[in-house]
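Predicting holo structure, 1-O-phosphono-alpha-D-glucopyranose bound.
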Amino acid sequence: MPVVTVATTPFEGQRPGTSGLRKKVPVFQQAHYLENFVQSVFNALDGYRGTALVVGGDGRYLNRQAAQVILKMAAANGFGRILVGRGAILSTPAASCVIRKYGAFGGFVLSASHNPGGPHEDFGIKYNATNGGPAPEKITEAVFAQSREIREFRILEAEDIDLDRLGETRLGDAVVEVIDPVADYAELMERLFDFDALAGLFRSGFRMRYDAMHAVTGPYAAEILERRLGAPAGTVINGVPKEDFGGGHPDPNLVHAHDLVAHMARPDGADLGAASDGDGDRNMIVGRNFFVTPSDSLAVLAANARLVPAYRDGITGVARSMPTSGAADRVAEALGIACYETPTGWKFFGNLLDAGRVTFCGEESFGTGSDHVREKDGLWAALMWLSILAGRRGSSVEEIVRDHWRRFGRNYYSRHDYEAIAADAAEGLMANLRAHLGSLAGATLAGRKVKTADDFAYTDPIDGSTAAKQGVRVLFEDGSRIIYRLSGTGTEGATLRVYLERFEPNPARHDIPTQEALADLISASRDLAEIEKRTGMAAPTVIT
Ligand code: G1P
Ligand code: ZN
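Done. Tokens:
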């Protein structure tokens, strides 16, 4: 099997975004597009010769073909061993688990997360480092620099590997091992949680509904919930992964997981509803007719962590992305543990987790996780909730959250997305906000006094690396916030995200519908940024 060196020329725009390189499938199908990016990653890395690489993805359209290319390139570039999930499948948290468990040098995760899949939809590729987490900016920037200079790539001329048969195959000087995509992850979950207690909960008649949204988590959820914990068949719905996610949008939120939400609104609905996204790292938690915001979920998990064996001795700290509500901060304060505020994107949690500064992390964008892997983990979050419900037998999801609010106060919270706006309009809107930051402090908006207004910047407390321009923040004296940032994961035009938050300590006022509770902040957010004038949009496309 000869290694061939193929001449190539750089492509524009191969800078990894919030979570890897994401483009439409036809972009990835251009000759050499994928190869250039993969070789740029290898060129940006040092010292991997003879080590192991993990490859897997969420099963979307192009997943298998891309995996075959990566296997041949990894072998040609000197990796000694390549672990690939059967069918080229690995959920994002499972990929992280496998990298860590087998001490791999790193891995490629093939996914565009919650974006739709199919021949005209999205594809993506992300490199994860030795700790199992998304490569830090230092690496992603080096990859981008390489992608602009690339002149050739190396690939093995070989037959495709049979990805459906477990076991080892030689590929040039490397060995490819097709592994069971679920086994290592399921074993990890079994170590973290008290499976006997969870099985007991199901035996007592507790009902859960897990919506895998035709995406990668189906086989993981079926194995863990139905087979290992004995939940009735049918607990996992939409459990067979499809290349186009059944034509749906595999994003677990109130808009896209509407079937689950509708089921949970029925009087005979399940006791706990959960859903995960395309690649299994996001989660949504719903109780009977009751939605748990991801920000609240993080706070509730932190407050109840000791109910889970892995966290029985307490957690060291929590971290949340800046736009995520401050609900977790209040728990951290009460527990006397550290709390960190990081830029958007899981990669910013990596150093804190590696250093043992935090145990739990979360983002408002339906991401929750712990130090068991270096990715957010949808099924883990569902098992955490199941454990809390098992530990507090008889309490419903709603009761647990209401109880939490009584104790810590309620952070009313919502995110308004304005999608597919022209890139220059979005840039102009942000530039205009930035230009006015200086004059905002002391001004009155929505009947509240602005305490400070800035563009969030972060210095990593472990390695001192910095990230600037991470979102415009308008912080009010009463603790309310309006935050603006542009999405870094989209593939079409720009998406403006507006995050709104207000704190309400008084339990007598914990029953206001969220949009109503935030109404004045919402209208101020539109006026201040001149959203309609600049984008033509009078209302957001998605509200979560
Ligand atoms: C979005 C979320 C962010 C998350 C990322 C990957 O990024 O907002 O919290 O880490 O997806 O799942 P964005 O499109 O806002 O850049
Ligand atoms: Zn995802």
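The chain has a mean pLDDT of 96.
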